[in-house]
Design brief:
- This protein is of the alpha+beta class.
- About 40% of the residues lie in helices and about 20% in strands.
- It is built from 4 helices and 3 strands.
- Strands 1-2-3 form a 3-stranded mixed beta sheet.
- The longest helix is centred in the N-terminal third of the chain and has 11 residues, at about 10-20.
- It is globular.
- The termini are far apart.
């Protein structure tokens, strides 16, 4: 049985950018390339006015199919304003 999920960082980045109107996406494949563990940073205006749990639900719903194929998916979501502030810290 193959341990490769078929999900790549490039595919995830494309899907996140399209479905979540992301202005910035960073993806780290923590599984040494087999596509089983991803850590992502998503910067999108759709997170404006939303608390952390609501943001995670939006991401989980938008990426339901992709997340179901991997072992671990960790996300950090920021509004563009929050991201600019974080970068300047």
């Amino acid at each position: 049985m193959s341990t490769h999920s078929g999900i790549t960082a490039d595919h995830l980045k494309s899907v996140i950018t399209e479905r979540l109107q992301a202005q910035h996406v960073e993806i780290e494949d923590l599984s040494a390339g087999c596509g089983q563990m991803f850590e992502v940073i998503i910067v999108s205006p759709i997170f404006e006015g939303k608390r952390l749990l609501a943001r995670h639900r939006i991401v989980n719903e938008a990426l339901k199919e992709e997340i179901s194929k991997v072992h671990a998916f960790t996300q950090k979501s920021f509004t563009p304003e929050e991201w600019e502030k974080k970068k300047s810290e």
